[in-house]
Amino acid sequence: MSCPDCFRGGVSTSHPTGVETTIHGLPTYVAQPEDGVTPKGVIVIITDGFGWDFVNNRVLSDLYAKRGGFLVYCPDFMNGSSMDPRVIALMDKIMAPASWFATFIYKPIYLLRAMIMGIPWKIKTRISVTKAPVFSFVQALRTSPPPFPTNNLKIAAAGFCWGGKHTMLLSQDAPSSRVHRHQSQINSTTLEPLIDCAFTAHPSSIDVPNDIEAITIPISVAVGDEDMAMKASLIQQMKEILEVKKKGDHEVNIIPGAKHGFAVRIHPDDKHEMECAEKAEVQAIEWFTRWFA
After folding, report:
1. What is the arithmetic mean of pLDDT over 15-29?
2. Three-state SS for 165?
3. Is the model's pLDDT at 1 over the cut of 60?
């Protein structure tokens, strides 16, 4: 389920450098590696609740593309219904310590305004509604001609908060979701998984242990030890399943002092938050590089 920290955090002061286009029917932000660099593969960003046009998600896409050498797609999987970033300031006011007067007079107003934004978002972006466009996009990516010259296109999913659930569903590699690769690709005559690997940071709405037990695709998880969306006992259970029971192809890194949203919604002037975000970024890039090789 969502927690207050799902809608809190900082807003990036950086400027995205990618472009908007339409890919497989969805508005998509595209970030490219440096000029002259052939991408190692395609990363599909499945964002937090603030969606494809939130500046933080676009800046993160740029960082993955430039630092990792990947082609990064950040599609609108919410059909235009992403959370309004104005809710961040409202949540800060709701959660901040205040006088009794502000608590009983102003905070209910802030809460009502946040609910007016949050309830429609929750209904329109529930997993049962958005799973189909996520899977359809990746299936189309797998079955279409590659976006750059290669006979073995590598695809990964990177999910954050809301997008973490979808990333784990993709990582379960249900036989019914498999497709034939485009004819230009190796192994095009057999049904293949949609993705080669996955990364998720501070995932939400995760059913532990069921969602974790079903994972078969290599996945890397970054989560803070102060995450409001997942209890410490469930984080440890997830780590035990992925790193011990399924030893070899998965990892769970628990980052001290990191809160929910730490990989995306960072306050630029907070040194610790920036360090936590950097750890998650390095973890993701190294993971993709390993499994794309």
Report:
1. 98
2. helix
3. no
3-state helix, strand, coil in the chain (%, to 5): 40, 20, 40
Average pLDDT over residues 15-44: 98
Distances (CA, A) of 259 to 14, 55, 68, 123, 201: 22, 20, 25, 25, 11
> With a threshold of 0.85, does the pTM exceed it?
yes
What's the confidence (pLDDT) of residue 16?
A: 97
By CB neighbour count within 10 A (0-12 exposed, 13-18 middle, 19+ buried), where does 132 fall?
A: exposed
Q: Encoding tokens for residue 161?
A: 């908060």
From residue 156, give the alpha-carbon distance in Å to each of 55, 72, 124: 22, 10, 25
H helices within the chain, ranges in order? 55-68, 86-95, 100-101, 107-124, 127-143, 162-171, 210-213, 232-240, 271-292
Question: Tokens 């959660």 appear where?
Answer: 95
Distance of alpha carbon 125 from its chain centroid, rounded? Answer: 14
Residue 246 has pLDDT above 90, yes or no: no
Q: Which letter, b or e, does each residue of 11-40 get, where b requires 16 or more Cβ atoms within 10 Å of its Cβ? A: ebeeebebeeeebbebebbbbbbeeeeebb
